[in-house]
Amino acid sequence: MMEKKQLLELLESNRSYRRFDSSVQLSEKEIRSWIEALRYTASAKNAQPLKYRIVTDKAQVDAVFALLHWAAYLPDWQGPSLKERPVAFVIQVLDRTISASSRFDEGIQLEALTLMARSSGYGGCILAAFDSAKMSDLLSLDTDRYTPITVVALGKPIEEVVIEALPTPDGDIRYYRTEDKVHHVPKRTMDQLII
C-alpha cells in the first residue's frame, strides 16, 4: 500500500513537462498498461465515454507534434527542439455515441494517466491547443462519433520544474522560464485554498 508521503511526492513530481530526451523511447505496451489503470477511475454516471489513441510511430508522432501549440505563457518559445520532443502521444477522445459530454472524467483520467507515467519514470504534458478537425483527419477518426479533446505528450523529462508559492491570493499565476531553462510554476498555498 502506498504511503501518504509517497503519494504526495508523486503528485509533486507530476508536472507539465515540455522538454524530453528524444533518444529515450517509450513502448506502446508501457502506455497501454497506464491506460489499463484508467479503467479504475471514477466516471460521471459511470458512462465511461472516453477513448484513447496511442501514437508511437515516429512519422505519426511528428505529424501530431506539428498540430500542437505549446506553452501560451511563453510566447517566444515555439515548443521543444528536435532533440527535446516527446516520443509518444496519447490522444483523449470523446465517444459521442456514449455521452455528449465527458465532464469530470477528462481531468480525472488525465491526472491518472500522467501519474502512471511519472511512477514509471516518464512525464507528460496535457495539451488542449490543437486543431480538432486536423487531428481527426490525421488519426482517421470517425467524426460522426469521435471528438479529440486533449493530447498528452509523453517522454523522459529533461527539464527541471520548480513549484513556488504565490505571494498573495491575487498574485500572478503564469509559469515562466529563467535563463538557465528552469521552469517555474506558481501555486496557491494551502491557506489560499481553504475558505
From TrEMBL:
Write out the entry's keywords from A to Z.
Answer: Oxidoreductase
Alphabetized InterPro entries for the sequence = Nitroreductase, Nitroreductase-like, PH_domain, Put_nitroreductase_C_bac
Cite the PH domain residue spans from the record. 1-43
GO MF annotation, one: oxidoreductase activity
SUPFAM superfamilies in the record: FMN-dependent nitroreductase-like
The similarity annotation says: Belongs to the nitroreductase family.
Designated name of the protein: Nitroreductase family protein
Which source organism does the UniProt entry give?
Porphyromonas endodontalis (strain ATCC 35406 / DSM 24491 / JCM 8526 / CCUG 16442 / BCRC 14492 / NCTC 13058 / HG 370)
The organism's taxonomy opens as: Bacteria, Pseudomonadati, Bacteroidota, Bacteroidia, Bacteroidales
